[in-house]
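Board notes, transcribed. Complex of a protein with OOB.
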Amino acid sequence: MDGFVTWPAEFAARYRAAGHWQDRTLGEVLAEAFAAHADRTALVADDGRSFTYKRLDRLSQRLALHLRALGLALYDRVVLHLPNTPEAVIAFLGIVRAGGIPIMALPPHREAEIGHFARHAEATCYVVGDRLRDIDGQALAQAVAQDCPSLRLVLVGGGEPRKGFRGIAALLEDPIEERIAADVLPRPDPSLPALLLLSGGTTGVPKLIPRTHNDYAVNFLRCAEVCGLGADTVLLIAIPQGHNFALGCPGLLGTLSRGGRELLLSSPAPDHVIEMMQRHRVTHFVGVPTMVLGLLDHPRRKSHDLSALRTVITGGSKLNPEVGMRVRRELGCDLQQVLGMAEGPLFYTRLDDPEEVKIETQGRLILPDDEFRIVDPDSGAEVEPGAVGELWCRGPYTIRGYYRAAEHNAKAFSADGFYKSGDLARLHPSGNVVVDGRIKDCINRGGEKISSEEVENHMLAHPAVANCALVAMPDARLGEKGCAWVVLRPGASLTLESLTKFLSDERRIARFKLPERLEITEALPLTNVGKVDKKALRDITATLAARD
Ligand code: OOB
């Protein structure tokens, strides 16, 4: 497959010999779960619908057959862009079972992001929600289709499909399996990509992350084990289903692999979450630290029965240890931290780690063949144990390269194949790691990653902007938000409103990427090599934000 970087043969052999890679497709791994738990409930949604394993199996196979009949070929890329509804689960499973490769877009993505994914990967199909919060999905699809010649099929989830589009609901009602045998579905090579995740992003355009059947299967199977999931698990997902954390860490797939049940919520609003946790007797809460805080601080928490809750699994951004302590104290359940990345590496605290290790560290890698280094980012030399350095990783489920990104790959990976995370970390005496900042140029807005360079490129297109920088400013609830620093063109003026309106209406970028503060300056501070001094800007921004 062009643009896909595989593991060197000696590593592939090692990962197979150790049993991490089993040369089964995701479809085959999940078929086992569908057969073993047929009559159990696999999925419950907050719209009241619920699905047994048998029904999920039948519907996803039906959709796979329809996709095949509609012309989807083996390894065709499909942009998957649905809100958190059962259709998102069925479509994911259906695409994978048809041998297609879903690109896991996030609901807030708009023309800028979707158009880029579709063109870059030459997608042939786009699966879009009729509505994605305040976005008109079908209008978005019309705009993307105009600009992406490879796109042949648009499938719509929810609502009435507009001219030229097909509705998922109608396909799911048509029992094509009575006309066409399942053996028309091609079997993908398990060592090739099964899905494309999105990178948190530090570059001008978001990168696509190829995850193979072999690597993603061991990813979610092992996560389910590390998190202690079982047939009695009710796992709550309120972050986007297409995000790695919600999909396979352990997420939907880990839960299914154990015969458990996923409760899929359309919104992470604390009122809704707490209500659903009580009603469905949730045992595992999955969320970013902002959501954990929302739960702890909920004014009516005590009047809700959350006694089924066993574990709060949190990651995506740094958990304040104080908040971690409150989980045990106020919710009376266990806390499990995960430092995860779409590129692969997964660090989890273990359920039998000492209490302070669970609270103060972000965990350790999950497979014996996982490797990590903490290095001086300039020389690549390992730092003294306990010192802070950049975290590098390599292993059976960590990619060796982004999809179709040879130039960037040369910088993002070491010569011997370690992924350079851009995160700063140190080794804790327990053997776990502690995240201690980052060197990559991005903003972590409550777990949502914003690439500064990407937004800066869009800002530079504004006629009033001569130069600019986007940096993080501290925020009590979200951890960080974006602050734009702008040098104006002579005689020009700019307000935060006019800038965000431009980014939103003209540049069509996702709303979470919009700057939330604007500072006008005569000149941006520079480092002694002449680059914009982001550290200095972050420091000034923090001071300004603290003053308000
Ligand atoms: C998860 O994945 P991504 O790809 O959205 O973001 C990865 C980045 C990491 O490089 C790190 O900067 C940050 O998010 N991060 C954390 C963290 N977990 C992720 N920073 C501090 N503490 C943590 N616990 O965010 C992700 C993927 C799978 C599972 C969980 C999270």
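The mean pLDDT is 97. The first helix runs from residue 9 to 17.
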